[in-house]
Amino acid sequence: MIISFHYNIGNQGIFHNSIMFVKKALFAVPNSKSLPIGLVARFSSATGDIGVTVNDKTGVATVKLQRAPVNSLNTGFLKNIESTLDSLEKEKARGLILTSGLPKIFTAGLDILELYNCTTESLTTFWTQLQSTWLKLHATSFPSVALINGHAPGAGCQLAMSCEYRIMLGPKYTIGLNETKMGIIAPFWFVDTMIDTLGPRQAELALTSGKLFTSSEALKVGLIDEEVGSEEEGVAKAEAFLSQYATIPGTARKLTKLMIREKTISNLVKNKDKDLKNVIDLITSAQVQKGLGLYLQSLKKK
Ligand SMILES: CCCCCCCCCCCC/C=C/CC(=O)SCCNC(=O)CCNC(=O)[C@H](O)C(C)(C)COP(=O)(O)OP(=O)(O)OC[C@H]1O[C@@H](n2cnc3c(N)ncnc32)[C@H](O)[C@@H]1OP(=O)(O)O
Predict the structure, then answer these.
(1) Suppose 152 and one of 68, 123, 156, 271 were both cysteines; which one would form an S-S bond, judging by CB atoms 3.0 to 4.6 Å apart?
(2) Is any atom of ligand 1 closer than 6 Å to the C-beta of 300?
(3) 176 CB under 6 A from ligand 1?
(4) Which residue's CA is the closest to the ligand 1 atom numbered 65?
(5) How many CB atoms lie within 10 A of CB 239?
C-alpha cells in the first residue's frame, strides 16, 4: 500500500509528520495487519522541485530532484535541497538515495543564469547558498547514495561525489567537472572533493581537461562505484548498500565519515570568504562573462 500526499518542505518535522500520517492511515485501514511491510510515505517541496519518499520500514529517504528542464542549481533550489537535508537530519533518517525525477538529467550543475549577467550581491547570495548546501550534503549523519540516472556535469558531479556511494545508469550519460572546458576554474573545494574521490593523478587529468566521463569510464577511474542497466537495478543496489549500515552503530559510522572528510570540509569552512572573493573576481570579469554568454547561446542553439 502506498500513501501519497503533499507536504511543505519548509515546515519543521516533515519526516516525523509523514510517519505519523502513515501510522494514522495504517490504523484507519481495516485489516491493517495484512498490509505489506515497508509502508512508504511521499511528499514534495512547496514548489514541487523536490520529491521525498520515506520508507517507513528502513527509514531510508529517496530525494528526487525535479526542477525542469534540467535540474540546474539556482539559489532557491539549493535552499530547498538544504531544507530537505535539515529535515532528514532532524527526523533521524537512516539513509539517503539522491536521484533525479527528470528524464536523462541527474543535474545540469550550476544554473548558468545565476552566473551570467549577475551582480556582486546576487552572486554572493547564490554562492553562499551553494557552499552551505554542499557542506550539509558532504557531512550528513546518515549514509548517502547518489543514483545518477542522467547527465551530471559540473556541480552535478560535485553533488554526486559528496554522497558516500555512486551508482550510475549506463551507458548514455556523462559525469565530470567540466569547468575548464567553459574557460572557468573549479573552486578549490570541488578540486579537493575530486582528489578525495579519484586520487591526485586522475583528478589532475580529469580537471585540467574538463573531462566528462561515460559511465564505464567513470567506473574505471573510481568516479562511480557501480554501473547499472536500469533504474530498478540501481534502486536495489542503493538499498543493498544502505542496508549494510542497519547493524553499524550510527555514531561510530558518522564520526568515522567525518574524520575522513574533515580536511576537505574545514578547508572550505576556514576559507569561505576567500572562495567567494575568487568567484566574484573570476565570474564578474568581462572575459568570463563573454564566455558564459557564448556558452549559454550554444546550449540554446542545439
Ligand atoms: C587563484 C585563482 C583561483 C580562482 C578560483 C576561481 C573559482 C571560480 C569558481 C567558478 C566555478 C563555477 C563552477 C561551475 C560548476 C558548474 O556546475 S557549471 C555548469 C556545468 N553544466 C554544464 O555545462 C551543463 C550544460 N548543459 C548541458 O550540457 C545540457 O543542457 C544537458 C546535457 C545537461 C542536457 O541536454 P538536453 O537534454 O539536450 O537539454 P538542452 O536542450 O541542452 O537544455 C534544456 C534547456 O536547459 C538549459 N540549460 C542546460 N543546462 C543549463 C545550466 N547548467 N544552467 C542553465 N540553463 C541550462 C538550456 O539552455 C536549455 O534552455 P532552453 O530550453 O533552450 O531555453
Answers:
(1) 156
(2) yes
(3) no
(4) 300
(5) 16
CB-ligand 1 contact for 301 (6 Å cutoff): no
All cell numbers assigned to 108:
545540469
Q: What angle (nearest 5°) sits at the alpha carbon of residue 156, between those of residues 126 and 282?
A: 45
Q: 202 to each of 133, 187, 265, how far by Cα in Å?
A: 26, 17, 21
- Give which of 239, 247, 299 is closest to 95, Cα–Cα: 239
pLDDT in tens, 4-28: 323 334 443 444 444 433 333 322 2
CB of 70 sitting under 6 A from ligand 1: yes
Instruction: With beta carbons less than 8 A apart as the criterion, state whether 186 and 211 touch.
Output: no
Distances from the Cα of 30 to the Cα of 64, 104, 153, angstroms: 32, 41, 49
Q: Compute CA distances 70 → 21, 75, 150, 207, whole Å.
A: 32, 15, 10, 23
Distance 108 CA to ligand 1 centre (A): 5
Sign of the torsion formed by the C-alpha atoms of 152, 156, 162 and 164: negative
For 133-178, the pLDDT digits (tens) are 999 999 999 999 999 999 999 999 999 999 999 999 999 999 999 9
**CATH code for the structural domain at 16-301:** 3.90.226.10
The answer, yes or no, to whether the previous bond of 69 is cis (omega within 30 of 0) is yes
What is the atom index within ligand 1 of the atom nearest the CA of 109? 17
Report the residue among 70, 276, 301 best suited for mutation to probe ligand 1: largest number of ligand atoms under 8 A from its CB. Answer: 70
Tell me how long the chain is: 302
ipTM: 0.97
Per residue in 235-279, pLDDT (tens digit) is 999 999 999 999 999 999 999 999 999 999 999 999 999 999 999
